[in-house]
Each structure stands twice: as C-alpha cells, then as structure tokens.
Amino acid sequence: MCGFAGFVDREARPSDKNKRLEVVHAMAAQLSRRGPDDEQRFDDDRMTFAFRRLSIVDVEHGSQPIWNEDKTLFVSVNGEIYNHVALRSMLRDPHQFRTSSDSEIALHLYEERGPEMLSLLNGIFAIVIWDTRRRELFLARDRLGVKPLYYAEIGSKFLFGSELKALLSHPDCPRNMSWSDTNAILRSEITYKSLSFVDGIESLPGGHFLLLGEDGTSRVRKYWSVEDNFPAEGVPPKTENEYIEGYHDLFSDAVRLQLMSDVPLGIFLSGGLDSCAIVAAAAKHTRNLHCYTLVEDTVLRTGDAAAARLLCERLDLPLHQVWFDPSRYTGAQRLSLETFEYLMWMVERPIFDPEFLFKHELHRFAKTITPDLKVILLGQGSDEFTGGYSREYKQPAADWDSFLRRSLSYSVSPRLQPLIGERYGVSDTKFFKHSPFQQMMCASASSLQAFNLWHEDRTSSSQGIEARVPFLDHRLVEYLAAIPPQLHAKLFWDKRIVREACAPLLPDELRYRQKVGFFQSPEMNVLYRMFFKMVIDMFDEYCEKYLSGSDALFSRVQLTELLRKGIAGEKPLPEVVQDIGACICISIFDRLCRTMHLNPKISYMTPPSPLEELKTLPSFTA
Question: I want to staple 471 with a disulfide (CB 3.0 to 4.6 A). Which of 234, 381, 572, 607 is the partner?
Fold first, then answer.
C-alpha cells in the first residue's frame, strides 16, 4: 500500500517548477500515513508527481516511480500485483528489469500491450503511467475497486491522487461539498456509486481506466465487470461438488498469492467462517502469522471471540485479542472534537459509523504490539458473492426465495420499487435482465467499493498498514458469477459453497457457525450509548468552533433546542443524537474541504494503543 498524487498542466511554465514541486509535496503530505517510508517527486514541465511508499516488496530497491529502459515511460502503483513473477514469462520482448518490485511488470506489459495488459494482472492496484513522448497519462483501478483513485479537471489542469485530501491540497482544486451526495447519505438512500462528496471531483470506478491525451481530452473506459462473467444460456453446468472443489482450489491459491510480502503480515480473525478460512489456508504456507481480534460484550455473546481462540489453539498460531471498552472513549479519555476531526480527515466523508472507530483502533493496537506489521488480510467481500447474508445472525431468512425478495426490496431504489413483481422480476426486463442473485452480485461489486472497501482502506492506511482481501481475488468473483442461476439456491443458501469448500481446512464446529456481522448482536445498546455520549460530550465545543462564525452551516440555537428536547424526552434521543452527529460530520467535512490547501494540522491517533490485550476471555456482561 502506498499513495500518489500529481497534476498535468497544459499551460505550465518552466519557471514555475519549484512552485509546482511545493504544491505536489503538500499533496503528498496528506498521504504520509499510507506511505510513511519514502517520498519521491518528479516534474517535467507538464506532469508534476509525487509518490509516498509503504515498502512491502523489494524493500531496498523498489522505490517508485520506476522507469523503462529508455526513460520514456514511468509507472507507480498503489497496491500489489500478486502474479508479477508469472507474468514475466508472458512478455513478448526482452526487457531490462531495474527492480524485483511487483509494480515494474505493469510498466513493461503496458509498453507491449497498452491498456489491454490490465486483463493479465491479479492484484489490488491503482496505477499511474506517464508517457513522456506522447505526453499521455494513463490511470487504472483494480477490478473490484479495492484501491482508491480520484481525479478532477480544472481548466488546463488535471489533478489526480490516491485520496480525496491529496487533491484538496492543490490550491486550484474544487472544494465545495456536494450537498446532493451528502443528502443521499442522510436520507439513507442506498447508492452504488463511489461518491467523492465534493462537486467537481470524481472517483474512478473499479474495473475502469482513464487516458488523458496531450490535448487535455480524457477518456474513461471499462475493462471489467461482474456481468461479463455470467454464464451464457445453454451452457451445461458442472456438478455441485465440482463447483465446491473448484472454489476450494481457487480460494487456497488466492490466500497463497496474497501472502506475498518481504515484511511481517497478520490476519484480522473475527472468529467467523471467512476469517477462520483465511487463517487456516494461510497456516499451510507460513507459521509467521499474527492474528488479531477485537473483543467486546456483543462479540462475546455471539461466540466469535471463543471461535477465534479455538482456531488459533488448534493451529498453534499467536492470537492477540484486545478488549474494547467503550467507556475509554466517553470517560476521562473521551473522544474529543479534535480527535473526531481526525476521524473525519481519515475517512474523508461527512459520515461516521462506530465501525470506523473499532477498525481504526484494532489497526492501532496491531501496530502497537507488532511495530513492523505492514500487511493485514481481511475476510471482506465473501458474503456479497456467496449468499452470506441469507442466514445472518441479525435477520435470518426463512429460505432462499424470501432472502432474495427481502434483499431486492432493500437494494432497489424507491423510484424503481413499484416495478418489482410479486417474486423478484420486474416489468422492465431491460433493467433487470439477469437473475435475482446476479442482480445482487452486480450491485455488490459497486457497493463494496462505495463503503466496505473504502473504509477498510482508510482505517488500515491511517496506521501504515495495507489491507488485503483474498475473497475478492477476481478469479473467485468470476468463478462465482459463472455459476448458473439454477444452482444458486443449492450453493449460495447459507454460504454452502464456502462451508463445503472449507471442509479440508476447518472443523465442523467452525464451518457451520451462523453468520454474525462485525459488532452485531441482538443487544447493541452499549455501542449506541457510546456514540450518543461522544456526540453530547463534544456538542458545546462543536458549537463554539463551527456554529459561531459567518460560515456556520447550521443554527446553533436550533441544534441546542433539539438536543434539549432529546434529553428531556420530548423527542426520541437516539434520533436526535443521530441528527446532531450528522450535522457535526457535515460541518467538519465542509471546513476540511475549504481549508485543506492551507495545511491544517491534524492530531493523528497513532500507537501506542490505549487498548489492552486479553489473556483469558471474560464472561459476557448483560
């Protein structure tokens, strides 16, 4: 995991080179948490670029950007290309490799094949290639959008970067918060687009690339989608067992490839099926694994913490379980407005969910006890393509058909819901041309990058850690997409394909545990109370800082009265606090957008972690 930022200016003057380098240095400074090991800058009077590196592969020699033999092209990659060694044999011409870095293969493949080379890459990546002869910029994002990439076009300038805050540090960047994007979130409207929340800034979708020509014309093209892999009609399916065996083989290989690292790596082990499967598959290749689990009363109640401990005892792997005490963030060490501002800077969106804090603190804890840790494997992305939510702990469906009906009613916008038929089909067959679960797969490919992968990237990178997701190896996703609809109920109900594929890896008591979401149980009041207390504790400080000037977005008088009514019981306190919390997030985000180029100081939440490791599991507290 690394980060890059830059801009192309058709009207750049050679005399302004030092100024441009100062600007790009400021942009890169916002990426220092995701690339703490090195910074390199470049300027050729048209392209100005900076790269921040997290050294994982070829630590000594893999500095970026990497140039081709005649120094007419360079490449920089945020992420990893897992099959880079195998790809060397696919080069048509001899090439001189300058490094052992996985990133360099993208450069030489691009020389030979142009954008078509993307179909060969197995990895998580955001790629930038600069052609000095053609003065052409190439940007690309991995198929599922694991790695972020933003861009903006302003007059003669084209800005791009790994994070929104890098672009916002450029003095010419648009910086007006998008109220339409923000309102969609506030109304809890499901969106499958990766939003920037800033008018004029775009997020390049996963599975797309962008070409910027010398004349300043940009073209965005799709090179991959889930639906491209749906089976054609009339193709005879394999047997259920063949699909299960094939899934096992692909999953095992995905985990093996994603252990690629020259530095320590670990695994977040929740105790659920997916993370347990990753740990068991990884243990076949290395014993140098550290597993980390966040424990709280709700996790104890669901049995996840005990399952994680059981697996590590059987595999003889080190397990670090950390107790998350909400009182630490609402008592003497309360989450102040200043640290809440940091969290908004980290996620760079006007929204907050307690999960962001939980994940951030688990990464900070992992970095505290394993300072050299730079890679974490996650179980993210399995449920979306294997029916993982059909029998979840919180809302188990009665059967496959009822799961599909419920899920489609959630995922289809209110505007289209009247079109849904009694089962799942709609009268608009052009819109819903695929089977119900295929529709859900398409939606998941977009929603993952819009939320889950987005916040996993930000919380991990905030501590200089790269998050990897074996279940989103594109080969696995394509394999699942190619399963014909007539087998969906048999293979995807209650994640049967995953449970059966894990038979060689896990004991039955772990394979058949019910799906439990992160910090989800029937009793969530303690977590909601924590969030309510955080908002109330910082309310006065927030009003003074954000609602006292001419740039206030909300009325201090009205918000204060709203809070009084909530505390007095005149209005439901949970709804009141959620509304006020939303106003706090919006105010902070709006000001960050408007002042980022002024280099505001951010108080990072860095190691050491205030959390404590558990030696034995406590009993559940009602």
Answer: 381
Q: Report which secondary-structure segment, H or E, holds 614.
A: strand 612-614
**Half-sphere exposure of 551 toward its Cβ, with a 13 Å CA cutoff?**
13
**Run of H or E including 108:** helix 104-113
Q: Is the peptide bond before 485 cis (omega within 30 degrees of 0)?
A: no
Write out the residue range of the structural domain in which residue 251 sits: 228-403+459-511
Which domain CATH number covers 196? Answer: 3.60.20.10
pLDDT tier at 419, thresholds 50, 70, 90: very low
b/e code 553-588 from CB counts within 10 Å (16+ = b): ebeeeebeebbeebeeeeeebeebbbbbbbbbbbbb
Residue 286 lies in a domain: yes
Half-sphere exposure of 380 (CA within 13 A, CB side): 24
Residue 276 annotated to the active site: no
Interatomic CA distance for residues 282 and 376, integer angstroms: 12
Query: What does pLDDT average to over the chain?
Result: 89
Q: How far, in Å, are 109, 168, 598, 606 from residue 157 at the CA level?
A: 28, 14, 20, 35
How many Å is the maximal CA-CA distance in the chain? 76
Type of residue found at 517: G
463-489 average pLDDT score = 97
pTM exceeds cut of 0.85: yes
Looking at residue 356, which CATH number applies to its domain?
A: 3.40.50.620
Instruction: Give the CB-side neighbour count of residue 476, counting CA atoms within 13 A.
Output: 29
Among the listed residues 2, 276, 543, 585, the single catalytic one is 2
Let me know how long the chain is: 622
CA distance 85 to 88: 6
The residue from 511, 538, 554 where one domain ends is: 511
Cis before 608 (ω within 30): yes
Nearest CA-CA partner of 505 in 247, 242, 248: 248
Give tens-digit pLDDT for 548-563. 989 899 999 999 999 9
Same domain, 351 and 250: yes
235-269 tens-digit pLDDT = 788 999 999 999 999 999 999 999 999 999 999 99
Name the 3-class secondary structure at 230: coil
For 202, phi and psi rounded to 5 degrees? -115, 150
Is 325 among the domain residues? yes
Q: How far apart (Å, rounded) are the C-alpha atoms in residues 249 and 600?
A: 49
